[in-house]
């Protein structure tokens, strides 16, 4: 892969977590409150079925099981535990716990893919955690053991799903691969949402627009981009791009909701951007010696 193509893949893949950062604004401003699992199911299942109808490709053989596992790890388990953490912890604590995901990806990629652990990648992951903490953590943040466990487990679930998505390269396009996972994840969430939450109230036009945005843009489009990036780039590089999500969330809160930006948050943004740059630099292929380039 040339440097030009790699940069294009990085920029395109970074678009996914940047869009995910808009989830907070959409959720708080457009969606009915108190139905997180139902909203997660509505975000995944219709988008997955729509993509599945477009590609008209079903899993074959072992891919039925793999699609189910990946759908659970990347969507059902991840989102369910994420909402548990969000309900039991302040948003800043939950987001900081989620920021350990790139570090877990580095370790899992070593165990499952044989990818060497580079000190620069570890430093970038740790810097990203610090940056996210500066962005969203407050001095009065309260801790809850169940919430912390859920936050850590949700990050581990997505990290394992990320690495397995790279290890299990499907014989289909990123569009079809995404449709399998979203559909499986949505189907797994359906009974949980049905049993754990009351029925949705009558939806307003803003509610419908918010759910449509999260499904079509925040799930279908972004996860096609995300899984395409995983097929082309190292898992540690792709997962580090997730640090951009809280940056987008904070910027949208400032620009659209009138929230203030503190010096600590500005410093956190700078640290996050630096950590993403360090992560991709750590995985950049070494340049060929001059003699080799002239052959």
Walkthrough of the structure:
With 295 residues, the chain is mainly alpha-helical. The chain contains 14 helices and no strands. The chain has helices at 3-20, 23-30, 36-55, 63-88, 91-98, 101-113, 119-136, 145-167, 174-196, 205-232, 235-240, 244-257, 263-282, 290-293.
What keywords describe this structure?
single chain, 295 residues, mainly alpha, 14 helices, 0% strand, globular, disordered C terminus
List the helices and strands and how they pair.
Blueprint: H1 3-20, H2 23-30, H3 36-55, H4 63-88, H5 91-98, H6 101-113, H7 119-136, H8 145-167, H9 174-196, H10 205-232, H11 235-240, H12 244-257, H13 263-282, H14 290-293
Helix pairs in contact: 1-10, 1-12, 2-10, 3-4, 3-9, 3-10, 4-5, 4-8, 4-9, 5-7, 5-8, 6-8, 7-13, 9-10
Identify the overall geometry: globular
Structural class: mainly alpha
State the domain count. 1
Helical content class? over 70%
Major sheet attributes? none
Order of helices and strands: HHHHHHHHHHHHHH
Radius of gyration: 19 Å
Summarize model confidence as the mean pLDDT. 88
Q: Please count the helical segments.
A: 14
% residues in beta strands: under 5%
The unreliable regions are 290-295
How far apart are the termini? 18 Å
Strand segment tally = 0
